[in-house]
Amino acid sequence: MILNKEMSTTSKKLSQLKKGDKCIVDSYKDDSMQQKMLDMGCLPGEIITIDRFAPLGCPIAISVAGTMLCIRKDEAENILVKLVD
Amino acid sequence: MQKSNKKIKVALIGNPNVGKSSLFNLLTGLHQKIANFPGVTVEKKTGSATIFNSTTGEANNLEIVDLPGTYSLYPTSPDERIPFEVLCDPNNEDHPDAVIILADGTNLKRSLFLASQVIDLKIPTVLALNMMDLVQSQGIKIKPDELERRLGIRVCPIIARKGVGIEELKQALINDIPVPTADVYDTTLIKPSILNGIRKELNLKSNYAALQIANHINSLEHFNLPEEQIKKLQNLFEGADYDANKIQSFESLERYKSIQQIIDSCVRVSDEKKVSFSTRLDRLLVHRIWGYVIFLCILFIIFQSIFSIAEFPMNFIDETFTGFIDLVSNLLPKGVLNDLIVNGVLAGIGGIIIFVPQIAMLFMFIAILEDTGYMARVSFLMDKLMRNFGLNGRSVIPLMSGVACAVPAIMSTRTISSWKERMVTILVTPLMSCSARLPVYTLLISLIIPSTYVGVFNIQGLVLMSLYLIGFIAALVASIVISGLIKSKQKSYFIMEIPVYRMPRWTNIGYSILEKVKIFLIDAGKIIIAISIVLWFLSSRGPGDKFEKVNQEIEQMTDNTENSEKKLALESQRLEYSYAGQLGHLLEPVIKPLGFDWKIGIALVTSFAAREVFVGTMTTIYSVGNDENLTVKEKMRMEKDVVTGQPRYSVAVGWSLMLFYAFAMQCMSTLAVVKRETGSWKWPVIQFVYLSALAYFTSLIVYQILK
């Protein structure tokens, strides 16, 4: 719904990023996921930093809006982001 | 606001990890009660506080309800439904006269999201702005006066963990709290025809409450509304194009815009970023190797403490209580009443309080791990591993605690936010070999396994270890099966905050221990005493003359050393003639294929109270006979099978019996706690049935193969 047409061509899933990557939240693929993330202050336009992956590759620790969140990989697939350098 | 004689109902609400329990403890002290919110197993903490007006000296009584931590009024889990239902339903029994919103000064934007939702409900509200010390040290500048003006409510800066600003907050609570007049985000332009319809039907003072109700129109079952009225509300939506999800996210985004404007006008954040202490600590504590090593060390310390340190207070309780029971039994006149009180009620109470040291110890560690922020890292480290079995990162602590005792372990599953994963954890935890099985295992192992060495390993030790391993593997396998069977009603998310590391707040930890002990003593205690009385009846009463004759003979005996041997023999006879003994005989055909006779049958019945009772029952049963110098073990070893002439406790019977004890749900305390934690008898019954079936068939197969 908040999907921006120009950005969508280059947007990636959050789950595809690597440790240390920075990205901007673009949109959410799933409505209830979107609400959950909005509740926690993770709005489109916020910057997410990938802090680390758990030793077995999941879950992922991310920093966003001043806090660190822990999110499973299949949940991260629903977050579309745009990489920043 | 109401005068002193009426209690003011205040609800405390805030995000997780903002110090809500600290503030709640500061306001209410020890005047706390724990129950469940009606219809759900979400913990409801209420407390009372008396606050004296600093100018008039008048006393005001407050009743404070601690609502579960949430990020928003839009619920995504059963815990989060509660704040929504309590605040949006004016007929809810907990609907407050006033609300304290606890906000995190270092993350004001997110805190204000929830705060603004509450403000827009037009309930009298005070904002407590917490963590002002961190705000200062992080170089953030907040203008509370400006915030007050923009939000239209009182704002009290506090430092909950140091108790700073609490008096001002208390005074703000007892002085007139104005109803917020302006909306932070005005929703009157959203679907006005529907929202106005809802407002009129329910006589709501706030448009936002109508919007919240509209967005949950199909899940109002916990609302205190007659069904026709809910129907009437739902009829308002007929033909209308109302997409709750879209409206919800639109409303949230617009709300954040209003909040951003407020923040721009009263908060200044410094730009300097440094690698925090937390980040550095995390490099070690969630490291892919060291993370696990450290976690294992912590687990090791916890279980060592539960096993060994808790043993001292447990022995102390056991000795003092036994002394107390002797005293009571001598003081009261002999007879049925004496017997009931001593062997039924008091034995039950003794069986309950013996758990207190282990519960207190485990919850001390859990509270420290939670409070320091380490627990979130445990979930982070273990989630993937545990998810293979249908469990959750947070299932690790309950499962491992199950090695000491399933009772506190099951109580600790509250930290698992997913309902389904919590149920699976509760159902499989009793498969972990608890400390009550240890006496049973050691007795049986010493009977059937020779104490020889293979290399440096003692075979008896290896067998004991294998029994623990079997329990653990069974728990994992059962998790896979059960999680395939349970249907989850709601979609749950794992997303959670990883808080920064902090020093534990010792008073909070004290409260947390007290709370768990209280819950166990009161809620589970009732059921345990009831079952204990039934078991007393079964083993001390019996049908027919035979029982009466033996019973009278015992009662007429005087206590002296000469006839103690004879008394023991009579007691064993009495047990055989009692209802429990009859039950043992009755059970014999059923348990014969497992290699068990009626004597073991009695032990199975009586050890339903607790597994270790097996040893005590065996002692009583095998007290028959004249070899006064033989121990139970020796007598059991000498027992011969009447048909084959082989030893009764052969390797086949021993293994069959050990595996039966490894799997069977023979613990009334666990069942009582499961009932308490799941809110219904459904789950303990399911658990009892599946574990008994598992035990029966495993023993059956093993005995038939080995014999």
Which helices and strands appear, and what pairs or packs with what?
The complex is a heterodimer of chains A (85) and B (707).
Chain A: H1 5-8, E1 12-13, E2 22-28, H2 31-39, E3 47-53, E4 60-64, E5 67-71, H3 73-76, E6 79-84
Chain B: E1 8-14, H1 20-28, E2 32-36, E3 43-52, E4 59-66, H2 78-88, E5 98-104, H3 108-120, E6 125-130, H4 132-137, E7 141-142, H5 144-151, E8 154-157, H6 166-174, H7 192-202, H8 207-215, H9 227-235, H10 244-266, E9 267-268, H11 277-285, H12 290-309, H13 311-331, H14 336-353, H15 356-372, H16 374-387, H17 396-401, H18 406-411, H19 419-428, H20 437-448, E10 453-454, E11 457-458, H21 459-485, E12 496-498, H22 506-540, H23 544-556, H24 564-577, H25 579-591, H26 598-606, H27 613-621, H28 632-638, H29 651-663, H30 668-678, H31 682-706
Parallel strand pairs in B: 1-4, 1-5, 5-6, 6-8
Antiparallel strand pairs in B: 2-3, 3-4, 7-9, 10-11
Helix pairs in contact in B: 3-10, 5-10, 7-8, 12-15, 13-14, 14-22, 15-22, 19-21, 20-21, 20-28, 20-29, 21-29, 22-30, 23-24, 24-25, 25-26, 26-27, 29-31, 30-31
Helix content range of chain A: 10-25%
Largest interface: A-B, 33 and 40 residues
Q: Which band does the percent of strand residues of chain B land in?
A: 5-15%
- Class by alpha and beta content of chain A: alpha+beta
Gyration radius of chain B, to the nearest Å? Answer: 30 Å
Order of helices and strands of chain A: HEEHEEEHE
Q: How many domain units of chain A?
A: 1
Structural class call of chain B reads: alpha/beta
Main beta-sheet strand count, sense and barrel state of chain B: 7 strands, mixed
Which word captures the global form of chain B? elongated
Q: Measure the end-to-end span of chain B.
A: 79 Å
CATH class of chain A: Mainly Beta
